[in-house]
Design a protein that fits this description.
mainly alpha, 6 helices, 75% helix, elongated
Amino acid sequence: MIWLGFGLATVALACQCVWEVQAPFFAYGPWIALVLLKRERAQALWLCALAGGVVDLLSDHPMGLHAVNYVVTAAVLARFAKHFLADAPLHLGLYTGVVSFVSTWLHLFLLFLFDRRVPFAGKWALGEFLGMPILDGVYALVWFAVPLALVTKIKRYWTLFWLKRKNLSPR
């Protein structure tokens, strides 16, 4: 499930790189939320560093900035994962919004730390800090929760089919 989510996030990142999207979204946000909900903290931090490394390869920011951002975001939000369910699509969307919000603030701080100038205007603040987490939550519901729920349901029915087929005892 985790690696299917990683593939979905990588496809979303590739689409975001190929086509210029008017409303940018946090491609690995739902995957970070899913990893935090399903894995232990140490493994989740390593997987978040992997996602940050992939984004670092495609960005023009200093190398390692996204990896540090994703790891610190995961470390801060790991304790809140117990309040959300991994199998509930709405919880995944809400937790993705929280991950996106914290990651955006941390990314802004890291850019200032590395002396990058970020234009700060009212439209930008509303769009990035309020609109983007909501958009990322919807993205998590549509792009992650639906395919993962379908895969889980197909896997469950497939297992039941083969268990019933192997059990040929008359009723």
